[in-house]
Design goal:
Layout (H helix, E strand, L loop, with lengths): L10 E4 L4 H17 L5 E6 L2 H8 L5 E4 L10 H21 L6 E4 L6 H10 L2 E6 L6 H6 L5 E4 L13 E3 L6 H9 L9 E6 L6 H16 L4 E6 L5 H5 L7 E4 L5 H7 L2 E4 L3 H9 L4 E3 L9 H11 L3 E3 L7 H13 L1 H14 L4 H14 L1
Parallel strand pairs: 1-2, 1-4, 2-3, 4-5, 5-6, 6-7, 8-9, 8-11, 9-10, 11-12, 12-13
Helix pairs in contact: 1-14, 3-4, 6-9, 7-12, 10-13
Length: about 375
């Protein structure tokens, strides 16, 4: 039996609702299960098919909560959201009272709040991870009350003054890390390949601009391929738009590792999860931050990559097919620049974040 396998304290991992919150939580939960297989564990997520399927598919006991986020203005929906949140706290208290005292780890967002609150009320240790450069409201409120705070970016420290933050990076999925370790490093034999990802829900404006840019590039006689993740709700709409034959549309990419391995460049929103995967694979990118992200955190994420020389940034208000086509053609024509951007991106990529967080959390149980 390994040293970590003897832990008897309970572990509750909480997060979900969006892929940006769900997958880092799952990554840490998997690392914890590997290090402490005998510790009682519970994954608290939003009661949604994807959250339950992804957790249970990894062998994690799933506890679903019926929750919804707050709107930015006073509405009746907000009253319901608050009632659901308090109900979620009560349900978490009931479930966690039956477990040995341990640690609650959350990744921010409204899905994490009930279990984190229940943990504090029960006297458990609490910890959180902030994925983005600018922390969200829930994490800003909870960070000073937590026993440990982990962040992806060093610059996040300035937004949580007086709190010790451990910059361990973004926790990536083990299957992604495994495929990266096993991937071939040989050069591409296929045409220049562009991967377009707008997050798990897709990004309509980004998709439209890319398809228009690809039309221009094809008309110029450029040889390339493109894979565009449209999101389920945008697939039929995207299929109705003009596009060259070299462009493939898909609602969702299940095997992201293979898509990254195939790509020479990426056009993407600037969620921290996508950026961490881009960095892991060392890919040059054109980033178009989502302009309505809370605290404008996607712009801060993108700027961190741009300042490191790993990415080009285009604000959505300035996104035009001609400019995007020009940026992509510039990358196609300049392998030296692509190589520099690739190296700079790789410096930002860290594959050990989930393991480092998990080990630190187990230390909290013993402290």
């Amino acid at each position: 039996m390994t040293e970590t396998a003897r832990h008897t304290g309970s572990i509750v991992v909480t997060g979900g609702g969006t892929g940006g919150h769900l997958y880092p939580a799952l990554s840490v939960a998997e690392a914890l299960r590997a290090l402490a297989p005998n510790a009682p564990m519970l994954f608290v997520g939003r009661e949604a098919e994807r959250d339950r399927r992804e957790a249970e598919g990894r062998g994690l006991p799933f506890f679903g909560l019926n929750l919804q986020g707050l709107k930015r203005k006073l509405t009746l929906a907000n009253l319901k959201a608050v009632w659901l949140a308090f109900s979620g706290v009560a349900r978490c208290l009931s479930a966690m009272k039956r477990m040995p005292k341990g640690v609650v780890f959350g990744v921010g967002g409204y899905v994490s709040a009930p279990a984190m609150a229940a943990g504090k009320l029960l006297g458990w240790k609490t910890a959180l991870h902030e994925q983005n450069a600018v922390p969200g409201l829930v994490n800003r409120m909870m960070a000073p009350r937590c026993d440990a705070v982990y962040v992806t970016y060093e610059e996040t420290r300035k937004y949580i003054p007086g709190v010790e933050c451990k910059a361990f990076g973004f926790p990536l999925r083990e299957e992604m890390l495994k495929q990266r370790r096993e991937s071939q490093t040989a050069g591409h034999e296929r045409p220049f390949t562009i991967l377009v990802i707008g997050g798990s829900q897709g990004a309509k404006r980004l998709t439209e601009a890319c398809l228009q840019a690809f039309e221009r590039m094809s008309a110029q006689g450029r040889a390339f391929e493109a894979l565009v993740q449209t999101g389920e709700r945008n697939l039929d709409w995207a299929m109705s738009l003009p596009r060259p034959a070299c462009v493939t549309l898909t609602p969702f990419i299940d095997d992201m590792a293979s898509a990254y391995q195939r790509a020479n460049a990426v056009v993407s929103r600037a969620g921290s999860g996508s950026l961490s995967e881009i960095a892991l694979w060392g890919l040059p990118s054109v980033l178009v931050p989502y302009p309505f992200a809370s605290e404008n955190h996607q712009s801060a994420n993108a700027n961190a990559f741009a300042e490191a020389g790993a990415a080009l940034v285009m604000e959505e208000k300035d996104l035009r097919a001609e400019a995007l086509a020009g940026a992509l053609c510039g990358l196609m024509d300049d392998p030296q620049r692509r190589g520099e951007m690739s190296r700079n991106a790789s410096v930002l990529g860290r594959g050990d974040a989930a393991d480092r967080i998990a080990r630190d959390l187990l230390g909290l149980i013993e402290a």
